[in-house]
Amino acid sequence: MGLRRKSREIAFKVLYSLEYTETDELLGHLELLEYYPEKLKEVLDTYDRQPDVRVSEFAEHLIRHTIIHEEEIDRLIEQYSKNWSLDRLAVTDKSLLRMGIYEILFTETPAAIIMDEVIEIAKRFCSESSSKFINGVLNAAANYGDTGKGESKED
User: What CATH code is carried by the domain that includes residue 52?
Assistant: First the structure.
């Protein structure tokens, strides 16, 4: 497994676990930014051998920036997941969509690579129908990003 795939899997696991972290409604994002390093450490501690430092650094980047952009990302998920509100989505699907959309809109990594990676993770951790659903939403987000409507790229 490549370094980026491992990073994405770790980031996904942390984002998933953060969904079950109780936060204040007004301070939710700020609290998640405070809590995620502890969750990241917990996930990294589950490995027999600590991943390469580049893996944990990229995972940390994905987690942090997905949280920072969560409100904008969630609006896009609701826009492109026809007839599905965020509360109806499986937590696994929502976590992967958030991470994938962050990467598509705010990094220089080609959307096709991100989509392939996220769908492979979905096949491993989500239900059978999830990968098709996630693919559709990510594809719509990639088209949104191509129109220049997203904010400028961060890295």
Answer: 1.10.940.10
